[in-house]
Amino acid sequence: MSGEAVRWFSEIRAGDLAAVGGKNASLGEMYSVLSGKGVRVPNGFALTADVYRSALTAAGAWPRLAAVLQGAGSDDVARLAVVAAEARAIVFEATGTELVRAPVADNYRKLEAQYGAGVPVAVRSSATAEDLPTASFAGQHESFLNVRGIDELVEACRRCFASVFTDRAIVYRNVNGFDHLKIGLSVGIMKMVRADLAASGVAFTLDTETGFRDVVLVTGAWGLGESIVQGKVDPDEFYVHKPTFRAGSRCVLRRALGGKQRQLVYDEGVASGSTTYVDTPSEKRDLFCLSDAEVLTLADCAIRIEEHYSGLAGEPRPMDVEWAKDGPEGELYIVQARPETVVSRRRGAAIETYRLHATGPAIVEGRAVGEKAAAGAVRLISGSAELAAFQPGEVLVAAVTSPDWEPAMKKAAAIVTDRGGRTCHAAIVAREHGIPAIVGATNATSLLKEGAPVTVSCAEGETGRVYAGLLPIEISTTDLASLARPRTPIMVNLGNPDLAFKTAMRPNDGVGLARMEFIISNQIGVHPMALACPDRVTAAADRDQIARLTRRHAKPEQFFIERLSEGIGTIAAAFHPKPVIVRLSDFKTNEYAKLLGGSDFEPVEENPMLGFRGAARYAHPAYAQGFALECAALRRVREDMGLANVRIMVPFCRRVDEASRVIEALAEHGLRRGDNGLEIYVMCEIPNNVIQIDAFARLFDGFSIGSNDLTQLVLGVDRDSELVAFDFDERDPGVLEMLRLAVTGAHRNGRHVGICGEAPATYPAVASFLAQIGIDSISVNPESVARTMQIVHDAEHHVEAPKPA
Predict the structure, then answer these.
(1) pLDDT cut 70: percent of the chain above it
(2) Is a pLDDT exceeding 80 seen at residue 499?
(3) For residue 799, what are the CA distances in angstroms to 32, 160, 738, 770?
(4) From CA 238, how far away is CA 228, in angstroms rounded?
């Protein structure tokens, strides 16, 4: 043998890729360098690639492999399967000698000396072209778990060597331009972590859908981690915000409970190395597989690993980290780390946005992968034999996908699976090929019919939806290189946390309006008072549903605080450290009444638009307990999550003494103006706000002009009425004069003043006018930001502002 046969992890560094492959090089680097920094890695050793090459050379296998692989393309699936099987047989035969058995036996005995006789091990393939920054080779080769004893260990090693020529590995190398015969394979043998008795999963040091790099995404499920990779389960998901974590705030940013329908465990009745799926007990499905403390420990490990590898690379290096929890020990282990190779490599000076103009009810929903939309005919696939009939441009629908399906999957218009999370095989392939996919779309294979035309949309946030028919899809492209950046800050209006990371990565100057009521409606769905006072909910069905939603919380109000704080926190984290102005809830009574339990707490008003809304509610006995929950959520965001970039905004504040009562109520609930830099703004949307702006300025740090309500009240036009819509116009001279008075009045008092509404994006004349009078910021919906920047830039440099009458 020309080189070393075995290297223990303590002897391996990241630069040893040629000898031990990417996976083992990474394990050695972490074991050697990071174990002392809280990153726990099981010990083990690697059979080097020299063992593989020497065994094949001694057996005279290279010429036979070259002949078998001649012309092995990826399009002919049937021929590929035959070629791959023949190549694997050649390698398996060649590695059945003492060249493999002797080093395996000697070093396994050393591992037994450390961990005990018959120690179970994981046997993992590690190719010399694996886990590169440009090509991960993840999942292309075989691994075997819970292997015991020398005979079974040698067998597993031979099968790992043979897996150099799995169908999927051959296809992957063809696509990425690697020479089949120049790839070497090392085998890693490491102490088995008994995750079958606990949980396992994957952590990414970026958001896998948008590429947003300021978060760690942790996914997990009960049992062995292959269940997540294979898409057999919908995992739990957790986010941690890296900048505030580094600054000392230890708090989970956001979480989502996965179905965790099945768990992969060892099949103790069969030979070692065998695994089987069992149904997860309902009580475990309803629990998160990790505590918050464990999520934070994994986030800490992931951040340390990313920082270490970024230092080695001399540039930021987002990482894909596998973790496992040992049931008997209760300890968390890192069992693999590789560079993330898909989302982090996205480059380009243009933003592509997909939008559906017509939808209708969704047939199925699941987790969106990517941000695109596509349409095509449904093709139901239940097994590999049906792939030959698959046509390019069809929508591949399956319970789960397999790595061997990749040749067909990359030709799909879209992919939809019954099960799986955002780190399953279907999601990984879809991301790599830029295909929209929906995973965890329960019952998709029964609800979507063969040949039916459908539209798959991943352009609406984290929830992906399948609609009937071939719907028109608008694709717009924004050239960032040529995008004009005006002097006036252009902010965004946002109410959907699912869109926060995506929106934050585009040009913006922060969030001028984060709509709390949107989060309450979409992320919570229950009236705040129904959670504060559940005994006052009269409908039995409502009480049952509230009990079901809040079952994992000691008190119902904790459900509200957690969900609202996570929604606000996600938006604040996405834009951190830019300002995020969060408007307190501004539902009208008829809108509040539609929430679960809401009818028990809301009056019936003739004109809710001018009724019990905004600031009038917050200190009122009818809503004071609900307001306390809003404040508790905001306090958690600013204090526990460390997101002090959140500013609070009070809506529809009619009178100065009403403003004073709200300021006092906020202070009583721990949100005192000035504490920890807290700024409190008020919506300037009632003529009295403008008329008495000097008095309001003494109580607030800034103003945000609500152009919709201000126009409504200046012109006396119900903005919800279609009959008089022709009279609603922000360009009216009276409205423009109100805008001018608001801006000059705020500046007279040294207060910030912005506007949150679509008028500047809809009417260039309004944008021009606002720029000319020196408004401090303009906030519009995300899809209007680029257009508004151009309009305001032109207004600042060229366009003459219209003069109010």
Answers:
(1) 95
(2) yes
(3) 64, 69, 21, 12
(4) 15
Domain ranges, residue 382: 350-478
Q: Look at residue 781 in the predicted model and tell me its pLDDT.
A: 85
For 163-246, where are the alpha helices, taking DSSP H only?
A: 167-176, 226-229, 242-246
Q: Looking at the structure, tell me whether residues 328 and 465 fall in a common domain.
A: no
- Hey, which residues are catalytic here? 425, 756
Q: Output the pLDDT for position 30.
A: 97
Strand partners, 265: 276
Helix (H, G, I), strand (E, B) or coil at 224: coil
Between CA 16 and CA 103 the distance in angstroms is: 19
Q: Are residues 145 and 232 in the same domain?
A: no
Last residue of a domain, one of 345, 364, 385: 345
Residue 396 pairs with which residues in a beta bridge? 379, 415
- Measured in whole angstroms, how far is the alpha carbon of residue 361 from the centre of its chain? 24
* pLDDT at residue 381, rounded to an integer: 95
- Decide: helix, strand or coil at residue 167: helix
User: Does 506 reside within a domain?
Assistant: yes
Residue 437 has pLDDT above 60, yes or no: yes
Q: Encode pLDDT of 225-268 as tens digits.
A: 888 877 788 999 999 999 999 999 999 999 999 999 999 998 87
- Residue 761: helix, strand or coil by DSSP? helix
Taking CA atoms, 197 is separated from 190, 225, 299, 364, in Å, by 18, 12, 22, 33
Distances in Å between the Cα of 172 and the Cα atoms of 74, 78, 319, 388 are 9, 17, 21, 19
| Average pLDDT estimate for 313-321 | 93
Measure the CA–CA gap between 444 and 417, rounded to whole angstroms.
Answer: 7
pTM of the model: 0.86
Residues in the chain: 805
- Reported as a single tens digit per residue, the pLDDT across 62-92 is 999 999 888 776 566 677 888 889 999 999 9
pLDDT at 138 over 60: no
Cite the beta strand spans of 390-501 per DSSP E: 395-398, 414-417, 437-439, 453-457, 463-468, 473-479, 490-494
What is the C-alpha separation between 673 and 647, in angstroms, rounded?
Answer: 10
508 CB-side CA count, 13 A: 29
Percent with pLDDT over 90 in the chain: 72
The enclosing H or E element of 47 equals strand 44-47
Residue 802 has pLDDT above 70, yes or no: no
CB 634 within 8 A of CB 671: yes
- Count Cβ atoms below 10 Å from residue 40 Cβ, excluding itself: 19
Number of domains making up the chain:
4
For residues 215 and 282, membership in a common domain is answered with yes
180 and 213 share one domain = no
CB atoms within 10 A of CB 175: 15
**Angstrom distance (rounded) from CA 83 to CA 76:** 11
CA distance 417 to 428: 13
